[in-house]
Amino acid sequence: MAEERKPRTLATKAAASIPKFVRGNLAATLKAKEEGKKVADAYINDGQDEIIRAMDIVPAWGESFAGVCAAKREAEQYLRKAEADNFSRSLCTYATCTIGFDMWREELGGEMPPKAPWGGMGRPDMIIGSAQQLCDPRFKWPQATQHYLQDVPVYVGGMYYPQWDPNVDHHEQEEIYVKYARAELMELVRFCEKHTGKKMDWDRLSELVNLTEKTWDIFIDAYELRRAIPTPMDTGDAMNTMVPLTFNLATQEAYDFYKALYDELTEKIKNKQGVAENEKYRIVWGAGLPSWFALGDFHYFNEKGAVFPVEVTYRNCEKIERLDLPPTNDPLERIARRWVRMWTYWYDAARKRKGSIPKVERIISYIEEYKCDGVVFHSAFSCRSWHAGIVHQAQVLKKVYGDIPILIMEGDIVDISSYNEADTHNRIDAFIEALDAYKKRSQ
After folding, report:
1. Over the stretch 182-197, which tens digit does the pLDDT of each residue have?
2. Nearest 5°: phi and psi at 12?
3. Partners of 379 in the β-ladder
4. pLDDT-derived band of residue 5, with 50, 70 and 90 as boundaries?
5. Each residue of 170-201: b (16+ CB within 10 Å) or e?
6. What is the β-pairing status of strands 406-411 and 154-157?
7. What is the side-by-side order of every strand in the sheet holding 406-411?
8. How far apart are the C-alpha atoms of 83 and 79, rounded to whole Å?
9. Which of 53, 57, 62, 75 pairs as cysteine with 250 (C-beta 3.0–4.6 A)?
10. Please, what's the b/e burial string for 391-410 (b: 16 or more CB within 10 A of its CB; e: otherwise)?
11. What is the value of pTM for the model shown?
12. DSSP of 182-228, one letter per residue?
């Protein structure tokens, strides 16, 4: 009789509590429609969270909903719906999944499409977007959605930070971008006031900015506890614990979540509780959104003694004191300065290393601080802009570290037809062998 297979990973209680956040965010859009509150389609890392919350607008997060559809393997029906109206599978599948859902909901007169995960999302009263992430759909997704929801007004802001150029001192540009970002945020305030019929409560906005900055700080404090050996939490959990930072920013619930996570990880370190039964290899998740339908691949790594104590993906903040922001009582300027500086945080380090780029300097810092042995990237074929440059990043890392093992996994974020589990696991097996040989040579 075969020996019963025992789970070899130790997930956090915090990660297990995340579904209530996701369910709550979706349910809030439906409840808002019942109560006559305003709902806005919103997008991650837009720098607009505090304004939306201060105006009592309920955000409907398309990327989150598409991720849920993928995890529950219900996305295909919405992808096909969008594809039937000439949206290519090569487009961002977060966008096409959600557009397909919106199309179907409109055809049903506002009723939810069949099998809508966790009840679906409420129809938006407005769409609030931003080019902050440089994603392909940051402008076109809101426009495409408005094609089907023609009565819904749209506001899309621009990009809030100077692009990396090794020959340009970005410090000289930052004031220009802060001024520009603040002006755009002010336009968003006016847009929200117009479509809600309410005036901005500036004192409340200032309080929410304070809360966001406290949340950024406790988030980083908690995540930096993962430097411990064995690590008490890895990227498999972080792909869940990022939810409050990404979709519940400027709420007390988000702050409380990361304080509880900090306490839990502190206790795990005290008791020497690690993610893997026998931690052998430490890996940076260097770039890329995961395949939400295949998060079990992290457990596959863990079963082989490989853990991810740190990741670039969804670690979208930095300690406020490290950003060295000049003081100001203007809440819009505070938001603008925080976002500009967060995106340019690694520029100085990149300028000091010939041929480097900010993304690589961030990975190098994580390799050193978290004592990592290799790097894994995930290249999602429908997420081109966010995954562009992965091969170049790998090449620069090789120049710095020689034969450090690097794995570039391939797949998608939502479209399960791109995924082959057997092939993925074979590639992971080969990577683990390379890690083992690298560690032996290093020792």
Report:
1. 999 999 999 999 999 9
2. -85, 155
3. 410
4. very low
5. beebbeebbebbbebbeebbebbeebbeeebe
6. unpaired
7. 306-311, 281-287, 374-380, 406-411
8. 6
9. 53
10. eebbebbeeebeebbbbbbb
11. 0.94
12. HHHHHHHHHHHHHHHS----HHHHHHHHHHHHHHHHHHHHHHHGGGS
Burial class (CB in 10 A: 0-12, 13-18, 19+), 272: exposed
Please state, in angstroms and rounded to a whole number, the distance separating the CA atoms of residues 236 and 308: 8
Q: Assign 37 a pLDDT band (cuts: 50, 70, 90).
A: very high
SS3 (DSSP) at 286:
strand
Tokens of 340: 């500009």
Residue 324 exposed, middle or buried by CB count within 10 Å (0-12, 13-18, 19+): exposed
What span, in angstroms and rounded, lies between the C-alpha atoms of 167 and 182?
A: 26
In sequence order, the β-bridge partners of residue 41 are 60, 127
Q: How far apart are CA 172 and CA 87, in angstroms?
A: 41
- Give the list of residues 6+ apart from residue 91 with CB closer than 8 angstroms, or none: 136, 137, 382
CA distances from 311 to 178, 251, 361, 387 (A): 28, 24, 13, 14
Task: Give domain limits for the chain.
Answer: 15-442
- DSSP one-letter code for 406: E
Extract the tokens encoding 416: 């399960």
Q: Residue 161: which residues within 8 A CB-CB, separation 6 or more?
A: 177, 339, 340, 343, 344
DSSP per-residue letters across 25-77 = HHHHHHHHHHHT--EEEE-TT-S-HHHHHHTTPEEEEHHHHHHHHHHTT--HH
What is the helix (H) or strand (E) element at residue 238, kind and residue range?
Answer: helix 235-241
